[in-house]
Structures are given as structure tokens and as C-alpha cells.
Specification:
This protein is α/β, with parallel strands linked by helices and 432 residues long. It has 13 helices and 13 strands. Helix 12 links the parallel strand 11 and strand 12. The termini are far apart.
Length: 432
């Protein structure tokens, strides 16, 4: 039933009109044949009616005879019949070929309105299609820049040379090999629509991937691997987020940098290994926290003299755990307690929150009414481990003077692990 509906939905108004004309001609011919096969005598009761019918019949026959004697009409009828037959043959061919292909081909399609369309296409271009293929189209590679940095580059010029992406050309069939399976790819362009806030025209496109066989598992594996590669690429660099001061407020990606190597920061003894093992254990034991109804978060306090590697080792922790860093600052005069709690709750996923030089923010409760901001000491404590604070986070604080910190800020639950980073020892210098 669905196939019949799909077939009927593809009929055009022209074909419907032609079908109606042919049906009308068939009815007239059938009436003529039926009339000629009847007897001439009519019942006396229907004399008037039969006389009118005979007159109508003779008039219709004469009109049809004159019409069909016209060569123009004959040509029109033959052309319409030929067009109707061709259209019918095409629809039958498409229907049968689709059925046959369904027995031997498996196909998955994705439209460019999907957010992962470019991810799939880039993966195919980089991993599957040969770079020396003759049917490739070059496009400028888009860089993900904050609007402020993009505007600065617009005013001062680009800071680095642009790169190009090479993708398979549109409206061309192409095959490639993925895991020893041959896959046919076809990009089909569609209509152009005006979308987005900028109201720019965008041409719709559909990417078709087909392979031999009844199972489309190899195509699903290709999609899964492409998405996994995207995640690996995004996690390959260390992203630093800062609090945005412009509308809309929230975390803004400030920069991406190379992850800090584990051997680039040498701590005394086994301190580095102990801290990393503790952080890994925390990330792998959420169930342990849930079973004991303990808030699932972990706080680290790195303290010691300036220049001992506190900030650098925080970057090592983020790199080893494949986390990004959210730099929390309390110096914004527009931020209050509610804003601070919102910022911590809405921090990007897969990121640890870092507050540097916490001793310069609040020394003790008596000085909680700072002149530089509206965040109170109690507001900071509630944002870290209050009822509405987010769980599953690693919170890292650094300070040069731990003795200046209020005991309520560094108690367990807020700072679970305290690590002192001293000046370089003989052991550290020998390991350099």
C-alpha cells in the first residue's frame, strides 16, 4: 500500500489530465459500441426519452467524428498517449530498479542540514578518498574563532596563512574503499533556501553512501568512526575558556594550545604520580560516590612559592585527563553571587575549573565585602559545594600563601587534596 501511495504521489498534474482524457475517450467508445449492439426498437413508454437519446447520440457521434478527422487533434492525441506511456514506463522502471537495488545495495543518506554533515564529508576526504583524485573541489578551511578575534583579524589582517579543504566534487559519483569494502558516494544538490540569522542563501545537499550487500553495518561503522575522530581531534588540543564580558554572557573559548607534556613539569618525589592517580581514580569512581551519597566533586589546592610550577602542573593534569580548563575570575565588577553560581554550573563539559591566586581574592571572612566585585565569601563557598553546585567537576586552586586562606575555603569537600610545591630540590635537578 505504501508503494502505491508513493507511486501516486509522483504523478504530475499533466499526467493526471492525460489519464482523464484517455478515460473519457474510452468511456465514449464503450458507449458507442454498446449503443450499436442494442436493438433499434424501444419500448413505447420511453419513446420521447429514446428519441432525445438518439439525437444526443447522433450529435455526439458526428462531433467526435469531425474532431477525430482533424489532423491536429490526431497528432495531439497520439503525442499525449506517447507521453503518458513514456511516463508510465519511467515510473515502472524507477519502481522496479529501486526494488532490485534494495536487494543488492544498502544505502545511508545524510543532509547538509545535519550538524555532522561536514564531519562525515571531511572524514571521507581525509581517510578514504585519495588526494590525487581528479574530481575534487577546493574550499577555504573555516577556523573556529571568537567573534572578537575574527574582527581583529579583519581589521589587522590574518595572523596566519589560510588552509584549504579538498572534498569530492558535487553531482559526481565516486567510489572509495573503507575497511576492504567498496563504497559508492554521490553528492546531490537540491534547492536553495535562505536560512540563519544572517539570512544567507544556502543550497541543500544530500550525501548518499551505498555498498553491496543487505547489511549497512559497514556504513554505520564509517559514521561512528568519523564522529569518534572528531572527538579525538577536539580533545587533541588544550582549550582554555574564560568568562565572557559581552552579551551573551558565559564561557568563551579564548585559545587552544598544545597539551602540556607530563615530563615538562618535574615535581619532587612521587608527588606528580600521586596527584594524577588520585584524579584518575576520582573520574572512574562515580558509583562509589553515589552509593555513599557523597557529592561527586574533587578539589585540589596547589600551594607554594612563586615559580614552582603550580599553574604548569595544573595544565599537566588537564592534559593527562583529556580535560579543558575554565579560568575562573572573580574580578569582574558585574559578577555577583548568583552569576558566579551560574558560571560554575554552566561551565563546558569535560573541563576542570581553575581559580589562580585565590589568596588575592578573599583573605578571611572579615574582608568578604570587597570593593572590586560583588561576590561574597559565602557566595564563593556555596558556588563550589552548595546545594545547587554542579557535580562531576574537578576544581583546582593555586595560592602562594596558604596561611592567608580562610579554613572554611580549604576544608575537605572544597579542597580534598592539598599539595605543596617547593623550590627545586637536588632530586628534581638531577631528573631534569
Amino acid at each position: 500500500m505504501n508503494h502505491h501511495r508513493a507511486f501516486a504521489s509522483r504523478c504530475t498534474p499533466l499526467s493526471t489530465a492525460l489519464a482523464a482524457c484517455l478515460a473519457l475517450v474510452a468511456v465514449v467508445v464503450r458507449v458507442i459500441v454498446a449503443k450499436q449492439s442494442r436493438e433499434i426498437s424501444w419500448p413505447s413508454v420511453d419513446v420521447t426519452f429514446s428519441s432525445v437519446g438518439d439525437m444526443a447520440y447522433s450529435t455526439a457521434v458526428s462531433v467526435l467524428q469531425k474532431v477525430f478527422d482533424n489532423q491536429m487533434v490526431q497528432a495531439l492525441v497520439v503525442s499525449a498517449a506517447f507521453a503518458a506511456i513514456c511516463y508510465l514506463v519511467r515510473e515502472v522502471y524507477n519502481f522496479v530498479s529501486a526494488k532490485v537495488k534494495g536487494l543488492f545495495f544498502s544505502t545511508i543518506a545524510i543532509k547538509n542540514t545535519d550538524e555532522n554533515f561536514n564531519t562525515i564529508l571531511d572524514f571521507i576526504s581525509e581517510k578514504c578518498v585519495r588526494e590525487d583524485s581528479p574530481a575534487m573541489i577546493a574550499t577555504s578551511k573555516k577556523r573556529k574563532l571568537h567573534w572578537r578575534k575574527a574582527y581583529i583579524e579583519y581589521l589587522n589582517g590574518a595572523s596566519e596563512a589560510s588552509k584549504m579543504d579538498f572534498r569530492p566534487e558535487e553531482n559526481t559519483a565516486k567510489h572509495f574503499v573503507y575497511r576492504d569494502s567498496t563504497i559508492l558516494m554521490f553528492r546531490r544538490k537540491g534547492q536553495t533556501l535562505t536560512v540563519g540569522w544572517s539570512r544567507e542563501p544556502k543550497q541543500l545537499e544530500t550525501l548518499y553512501l551505498s555498498t553491496w550487500g543487505w547489511s549497512n553495518q559497514i556504513l554505520k561503522d564509517l559514521f561512528d568512526e568519523a564522529l569518534q575522530e572528531k572527538v579525538k581531534e577536539e580533545r587533541s588540543g588544550l582549550n582554555i575558556y574564560v568568562q565572557g564580558s559581552d552579551w551573551p554572557y558565559g564561557w568563551t573559548k579564548a585559545l587552544s594550545k598544545r597539551p602540556r607534556d607530563r615530563d615538562s613539569v618535574i615535581l619532587d618525589g612521587n608527588l606528580a604520580d600521586d596527584l594524577l592517580d588520585d584524579a584518575r581514580s576520582f573520574l572512574c569512581n562515580r558509583q562509589w560516590y553515589d552509593e555513599r551519597h557523597i557529592p561527586y566533586r574533587r578539589g585540589y589546592l596547589l600551594y607554594g612559592p612563586p615559580g614552582t610550577g603550580k599553574t604548569s602542573f595544573a595544565q599537566v593534569i588537564a592534559a593527562e585527563l583529556s580535560l579543558n580548563i575554565c579560568m575562573l575570575s572573580l574580578c569582574d565588577s558585574k559578577m555577583d553571587d548568583a552569576g558566579l553560581a551560574r558560571e560554575i554550573r554552566e561551565a563546558p563539559k569535560n573541563a576542570m575549573i581553575m581559580l589562580e591566586d585565590v589568596d588575592a581574592v578573599f583573605v578571611d571572612r572579615a574582608k568578604q565585602e570587597g570593593k572590586q566585585n560583588q561576590v561574597t565569601f559565602s557566595g564563593l563557598l556555596n558556588a563550589i559545594d552548595g546545594v545547587g553546585s554542579q557535580e562531576g567537576r574537578i576544581f583546582v586552586m593555586t595560592t602562594n600563601h596558604i596561611e592567608r586562606l580562610d579554613p572554611a575555603l580549604i576544608r575537605p569537600g572544597r579542597c580534598d587534596v592539598k599539595a605543596e610545591l617547593r623550590k627545586s630540590s637536588k632530586n628534581q635537578m638531577e631528573r631534569c
